Please model this.
Amino acid sequence: MTATLDLWPIGNCQVSALVDRSGRFVWGCLPRIDGDPAFSSLLDTAPPAADGAYGFWEIDLEGVSQTTQAYRRNTPILVTRHVDGDGNAIEVIDFSPRFQRSGRMYRPTAFCRIVRPVAGAPRVRIRLRPARSWGSAAARHTRGSNHIRYLLDESVLRLSTTAPVGWIEDERLFRVERPLHFFLGPDESFSEDIAAALDGMLDRTADEWRRWVRGLATPHEWQEAVIRSAITLKLCQHEETGAIVAAMTTSIPEHADSGRNWDYRYCWIRDAYYTIQALNRLGALDVLEGYLEYLRNIVDNAAGGHIQPLYGVGGEATLTEWEAPGLAGYRGMGPVRVGNQAYDQVQHDAYGQIILSNAQAFFDHRLFRMAGVADFEALEPIGERAWARYDQPDAGLWELRTKAHVHTYSAAMCWAACDRLANAATVLGLGDRATFWQDRADRMRARIEAAAWRAEPDTLSATFDGDDLDASLIQLLDLRFLAPDDPRFCGTLKAVEAGLRRGSYMLRYASEDDFGVPHTAFNVCTYWLIEALHFTGRHADARVLFEEMLTRLTPAGLLSEDIDPVTGELWGNYPQTYSLVGLINCAVLLSKPWSAVR
Model:
């Protein structure tokens, strides 16, 4: 079966897995989202039935003729139903436990599967073949009375089950006449009744997620799409530390055979800012509070110095990039990269995103921990960095590896850092500091406007030293650097749309970069365009474009990073937080008010 991005995420904010359209686990890393994939077949080419294939977990119904999938409402609990040609049927429930227990969140490094007979006399074959060493070898296993232990490089997984252990080990076909329960997790004895324990975990996990969703302030329209995006963004947070990863995968190409294969399983300061911005609009303040704790530690460790564009989910600073030779890549399109060399790049926009992420905490009385004078003082060195670097070259938000320019987006983000520090100082009653930071922000604005404006052809440039078109210029609206009725913004929007729009989609840029000219559109840029169309009075155009983007969601209701503007096929890492952020923001913006139905 050819790999696709028709994938269904499950998880518990500690680990996650992607389930393909046949109900097979094809991606999942341990002991956390940026670890070694025990399930890696998404990035391999060997068919699962082949001898020696590994990196997957499938529950295969003999003679299957139809498979349907759906999440339980308002949860990341996946139900897959298989039917064979004679009407025999099973359903498989997949989830990772997550619920309050003993005063804290229980989120083990574990996956649960419950198989239930639905009709007739179904026969199944279970193949559980974890990989190790980045797909270079199968995990060896040992067997107990009701468990199998899988020996990974740095840990041991234990499958505890009510199914016949020998039949699983032998991958033998057998009839399903009763519910079967599987708990794949730490190498610890399962002291409880396995079936009762997993049934209880299922109920408590569903209740926990439904309570979380119940607290979301969703728009009236497109609720299901918004809720699914919000749940998935929550799954992208490593709850232990508060870090938010950009995507769950690595090395899904931006387009076929492009070599643009990157590892996105880390916390980008930029992507995380956009994620909490979107979830804040829905009232999901727990994600903000967790991330700010993570961010405060990043700032403390920097001690007023350079802030990297990204860090590991535990705050790790070094993310050395290397290629995994044991995996052929998505559809054989390698390389598979682990780590991301962008960690050692200079990207000045991070200073703005740090302060923008913190700004709400100075004003929002709903938070458990509001920010105070000490927090403001801790952020001032970040403002100093923004002031010192805003008009200096960097790699930019698209992380160009061989080029450096003074990017207008980066400069404007640095301006926003100083502008929001002035706002925070004002609310704290620090008049002198408010004046100090506002003066700097005003001087930065004047410099940016002078350096980036091109009277002919009536547009801002993406760089101070060129005449570049870049979709990031649309973000000057969201930053409140320019107003929607400002002629300079209107001219910029017109130029960007004319130069970068391809039908219903937007490119990031159309100029040659380190890997040539981009072929695919960047989904979040289309959402930026939708926002700009709305704010500049083109409401009908914005709504039509948004509805078009909804048709591009996977069956799971999600999006990857990129889309082919000709075929509509999704490419790039999945699920991509940027893309889901755009969906949420536009739905909130465009939806009819709740008063329309009350």
About this structure: The CA atoms of residues 57 and 128 lie 4 Å apart. The mean pLDDT is 96.
